[in-house]
Amino acid sequence: MILKYLGLLLIFIGLVVSVSFWIPQLVNKPKLKTILGKRYSVIYFVYITNGPLLVIMGLLIFLYL
Questions:
Q1: 46 phi and psi, to 5 degrees?
Q2: Sign (positive or negative) of CA dihedral 51, 46, 44, 23
Q3: Is the pTM of this model over 0.85?
């Protein structure tokens, strides 16, 4: 039962990160690009690991455990 709640929590957090990344006012991408320079691609790695990957992990936990 606790794993089901953990799965739902991961799904929720992943969805919040995914939606907040694509709302222009929350994440100022041009400013991040000027701050990070060549390392700007790290932002997409962080987004993938904290957005869709959390949703997938949460779904797997929720459905199979």
A1: -65, -40
A2: positive
A3: no
Contact 6, 54 (CB under 8 A): no
Return phi, psi of residue 8, to 5°. Answer: -65, -40
CA nearest 10: which of 46, 62, 63? 62
3-state secondary structure of 58: helix
- Tens-digit pLDDT profile for residues 26-36: 888 888 889 98
Local structure of residue 25 (DSSP, 8 states): T
Q: Are 65 and 3 in contact (CB under 8 A)?
A: yes
